[in-house]
Amino acid sequence: MDYQIPIPSYNRIETLQKATLATLERHDVDPRRVTIFVANDEQYKDYRQAINKKYEIVVAQLGLLNAKRFYHNYYLAGTKLFNVLDDVYLLKEKDNEKMVDYKGTIDDLVSLGFRASEKVGAQMWGINPVTNGFFMKNHITVGLRLIYGTIYGDYAGNPAVLGNRIMESPSGEDWENSISSFITNGSLVRIEWIAPVSKLFAKGGMSDEMKLRGTDRKTEHELHLRAIANAYPELCSVYYKAGDVINLRLKNITHARIPKGSI
């Protein structure tokens, strides 16, 4: 399957190397598929000096949303994209009742995600957002679920990314993208037995981007999630997790479950 791997990154050279690039290499990715999108010429210089020359680096724009908009226009419309953030340290999977390191290749994962999407007419697919075997299942869910922004598949030119936003904020954009894509296409696809290991609210990335804008990630995250809940009250609501961390709860809409190994 022909696909590309865009990685937006800002002030996270070491994280990118130790996390996402190492993970992709561990799962046999052809480096010619990978393009790292950075904010400006200064960032390009820093990244180019540190990152292996086998990886292409392109100057996009400052800000995660702007970088995503940039690369959705950089690739030909309809190009299959395996979107990955720069802080993915591992992929885990549920094997019967055990949690183990993901054993397949990225090619395997991408092929499965797009095959399932094409089968049901979806335009966006993802993996489970939590590495907790209790919440992981041996099937693919078709319906409304969060498509976690850390790793997901869609197509270049995706209107869920390029269209108007409730807020011009990267914090919570995966919730907004999920809802928008569900409304537009009727279904999302989520592979429930695979999940990423990453570090939320790590240094660099969105946290540094928001400092430049004079805000902080926690505050903007809460504002964006509340705005999404107000815009789509029939599909989601706000609640608080442990530690007084705000989150959204999507309405549980399930159109189908595709058993593991059947597609």
Quick structural gist:
The chain has helices at residues 13-26, 41-50, 64-74, 106-120, 159-162, 173-185, 205-212, 217-231; strands at residues 5-8, 34-38, 56-59, 80-84, 88-95, 98-101, 125-127, 139-144, 151-155, 188-191, 194-198, 236-241, 245-250, 253-259.
Description:
With 263 residues, the protein is α+β, with helices and mostly antiparallel strands. It has a single domain, classed as Spore Coat Polysaccharide Biosynthesis Protein SpsA, Chain A (Alpha-Beta Complex). The chain has a 6-stranded mixed β-sheet. A 3-stranded parallel β-sheet has the order 1-2-3. A hairpin with a 3-residue loop joins strand 12 and strand 13. It starts with a strand and ends with a strand.
